[in-house]
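FORM 7B - TANDEM STRUCTURE REPORT

SECTION 1: FIRST PROTEIN
SEQUENCE AND C-ALPHA CELLS:
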Amino acid sequence: MVLSFTGLPSSKRLLLLFLQCSLCRRAMVNKLWCLEIGRRWRQAARQEPPQARVLSEPKCQSYVAIWYLYYRWTIFLAWTAFVVCSIFEIGSYEPLSQYEKWPIYLTNWDMTLGITQALIGGILVSKRWRLQKIPGFNPCDLKLESTDRLYWFLYVVTTNMAIGVTISYWLAVYNPEIHKVDPLNIMMHVCNSVLMLIDLFVTNIPFRLRNFWWCLSIVVFYIIFSVIYYVAGGLDKHDNHYIYKVLDWKKPVRTLLVCIGGFTFVTVLHCVVCMLANIRDRIYRKTAENVSKPAQLNMTDDKPLPEKQIEVV
C-alpha cells in the first residue's frame, strides 16, 4: 500500500492513515493468534495417549499399595450406595415410589456413569495388584487396552458430570416448594461431586483440554433423549410434561438457548477441571522435589553423616 500526499496532510488524512495502520496491525495480530492456536491444537492432537500404568496407581506412588486397593473398592461401594438410595428413595422425606422414572433424570445418568467407572477402576487396580507380585513385572510394559480407554473416558466424564450436576441443580433446578433438602437430595447433588473432587486429587488419571467433547457428547445425548421423551408424552415424577422445567420443549426457543448455555457451561467446566488436575500435578511434583532435596544434600555433603547408634537390648 503506497500513500502519497500533495502538500501537508490534513487532519482527516492523518486520521485515516492511523485507522488503516491500526486495522492492519490488528489483522496481523489476529492472524498470528490463529496460527498459534492452530499450532497448539495440532500439537495436542498428536499428543500420545497416557501410559496404562497411570490409570491404576495413585498419584503419590508408582505402585499399587494395599491401601489404594481398599480405597478403590470403597469408592465403588460409595457409588453403589448412591445408586441404591436413589432408586429406592432411601433418605427421602417424601418418597414418590415412581421407580420406572428413575432413568429419565440426568442426575441418575451421572450415578450410572459413576458406579460403572468405579467398578472398572476397582477391577483394573485389582489386576495391577496381582501383576506386580510377579517377579520382574514392569508397569511400563502395560498396554493401553480398550478397557483402560473406557475407564479413562468414564472417569473424566463422571468427574465433569458430577460437578456440573451439582452446580446446575442448585442454580437452575432446585425449587424449595417441590424439592426437599433431605439426606437423599444432599447425597445425590452434593456428595457425588465431593467424592469425585477428593478422588481427583488421589488418582493419577490425566485430564486434557482436547477431550472436552467427551462430556459434551453425553449432554447432547441427554438433550436428544429429552426431546424424544417430550414428543412421546413423557411426564416427570410430578406429572409435568417435561423432565426439568428448564428443558420444557413447549418453549423451544428458550430451551434451545438453555441448551446452548449448557454446552458452554460444560466446556468451561472441563477447562476448570483440567486446571484442578494441573494444580494436583504441581502439588505432588513440588512435594516430591522438597522430599528429594534433603536426601541429595546428605549425599553431596563432604562431612560423613553420623552413624546411628544401635541400642542393644
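SECTION 2: SECOND PROTEIN
SEQUENCE AND C-ALPHA CELLS:
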Amino acid sequence: MKSKYFNTLNYTLGDEDTSLELSLCPQNSKNVFSIAGSGGRILPLFAKEPVCINCVDILKEQLYITELRIETVKALTHEEFCNFWGYSVTDITPTERQEIFNRITISSEARLFLWAFFQQNKWSKIIYMGKFEKMLIQLSKINNLITGKKGQKIFFSKSLEEQKFYYLNFFPHLRWKIVLLLLGNSAVLNSILYKGDFPKKNIKGSTYKNFARIFLNIFETISIRGSFFAQMAFWGNIKFKEGYLIEADPELFQQIKQGANKTTVKYIQGNIFEVIKNSHENATFLSLSDVPSFLKGKTEETYLQEISPKIEQGSLIVVRGNLRVTKPFSDDYFILSDQYDELIKKETTQLWNIHIYKKN
C-alpha cells in the first residue's frame, strides 16, 4: 500500500460524489469505517448519526484536513463554513479565513501542518489547494484554450434536454476530442498526479475511450452544473452552486452538524484493511473509495475475505474503481451493484465503476 502518490496533501475537495454513500449508510450505524481523503467523502455520513466513525488514511495530512472539516462543521454556521472552505461566489479575505481557522479547535499536529499549508497557499479558497484540484485547474486552462466559450456555453443550458441538444448540435466536438486525448493520456495523469504509481488499467477500452464515455454520460444524463468534476474541468473552479459538494447544502449541513456533535470520531493512520482486521468491534458500514485499486498481488483478490470476520452480518461495503476495477473473492457477500444501479447512475462525477457488497 505504500506509494509515492500518498506522500503529500492530494485532496482538499476530492473526486467523488458522496451522495451514494450517504444513501447507503444506515441510520445510527454502530461502527463506520471510511477512507478519509479530503474529509468531504466522510462529512455527509454524519447526517446518519452513526455511533462511531473511523476516519482512516495512510497519509496523516489527509487526516488533518478531515479533522478540520469535521471541527468546522461543528463550530461554524453554514455561511461561515461555506466562506471558510471556498463555497462562495465572492471570496472572504485571507485575513478573515485565518481568523476563522484560529477559532477552530483541532489537534496541535493538525494545526501546525495546516497553518503552514494554508500560509503557503496564501489563505486562498481551501477546496482548490490540493494537488488533484490544482491538476484540474491546469487542465481546465488547456481545455479553455482549445474549446473556448463554445465548450463552456453548455453550462448555461436551462434543462437536460436543452443541454443534450446543445451538445449534439453546437458543442465543439473536434476540439473536445483533443482535450480528451490529453486527459486520456495515462502517462500525463501518471506523471502529474500519481508520480509513477497510477493503478494499471484493467477495464475494457483505451483510457481515451473511457474518459470519452465518462463525459458523454455527464453531457447526456446529468445536469452538467450539478457535476463539480465537470465544472472543474471546464472552469477551473465550481462556478455554479449546483455543483457544490453536498456538505454545503444548507439542510444537509444542519443534519451533519447535529450528527457530528453526537458521533464518536477516530482518526487512524494506516492501511484500512489492517485497521479493520485489528478493530475490537465489527464494522457496520465500509466506504473504501478506490483504495482496492492500489492493492497488488493476491491481496487484490482476497481483501474481502480477509476482513470478513470483522464485518457485521448485513453490512454494506462500497468500493470504487476508475480505470482499474478489482474482482475480489466474494463468497461471504451478496453483490448488490445491480440492485442500486439507478443510484449509481446519479453519481455526478461519473468517474467511477462502483461495486456494492453485503455481508451474508
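SECTION 3: OBSERVATIONS ON SECOND PROTEIN
Residues 1-7 have pLDDT under 50 and may be disordered.
The CA atoms of residues 246 and 346 lie 13 Å apart.

SECTION 4: SIGNATURE
Preparer initials: ____
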